[in-house]
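Quiz preparation item.
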């Protein structure tokens, strides 16, 4: 796994030069990843927002901070235990959903990240991440919380943290409480992977 570090650095350099779609002309920075490239968990979101575009790091704005807190309360440290990236690496203007063409243009970068990090578990944050990776359309509320096998890995769709920011209730059955439960499932599987045989 250690050998993946250099190719990941090369990937970041190549991404920084990318002009495969129109988002290149409006971005401040390409947002490739943060976290631990040796982690067994990859988090995939939709695409950078304003803060991410400014800092060059994924999930550092309000929704990222909420995701960090939710992961931490399930016992997952986002920078130590996860490698975090997005379906598209450049900010769609006005935070609109990335188009199918933009997602397709960016796909080879994501595929390289998955191949190099080689995570057994992938958390898909929000419907666009599910649709972008799997081509599966449909309500995230029906998909979340259920492990899906994919290419020898396990995927866990969760609600997008920006939705949770708009729905802050923590009552039992609330979107936030459901997400906590989903993240606890992820933590349990991470712990299983770490346990000696
Ligand atoms: N939302 C995302 O999906 N990704 C980010 O990096 C930030 C916000």
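Solution:
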């Amino acid at each position: 796994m250690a050998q993946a570090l250099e190719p990941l650095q090369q990937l970041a350099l190549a991404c920084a030069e990318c002009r495969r779609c129109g988002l290149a002309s409006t971005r401040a920075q390409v947002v490739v990843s943060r976290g631990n490239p040796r982690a067994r968990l990859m988090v995939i979101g939709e695409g950078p927002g304003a803060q991410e575009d400014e800092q060059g790091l994924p999930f550092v704005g309000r929704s990222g901070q909420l995701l960090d807190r939710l992961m931490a309360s399930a016992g997952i440290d986002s920078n130590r235990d996860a490698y975090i990236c997005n379906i598209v690496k450049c900010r769609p203007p006005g935070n609109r959903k990335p188009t199918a063409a933009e997602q397709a243009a960016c796909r080879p970068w994501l595929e390289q990240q998955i191949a190099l990090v080689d995570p057994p578990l992938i958390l898909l944050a929000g419907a666009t991440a599910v649709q972008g990776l799997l081509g599966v359309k449909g309500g995230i509320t029906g998909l979340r919380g259920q492990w899906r096998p994919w290419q020898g890995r396990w995927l866990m769709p969760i609600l997008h943290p920006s939705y949770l920011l708009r729905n802050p209730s923590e009552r039992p059955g609330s979107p936030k409480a459901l997400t906590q439960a989903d993240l606890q499932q992820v933590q349990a599987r991470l712990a299983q992977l770490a346990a000696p045989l």
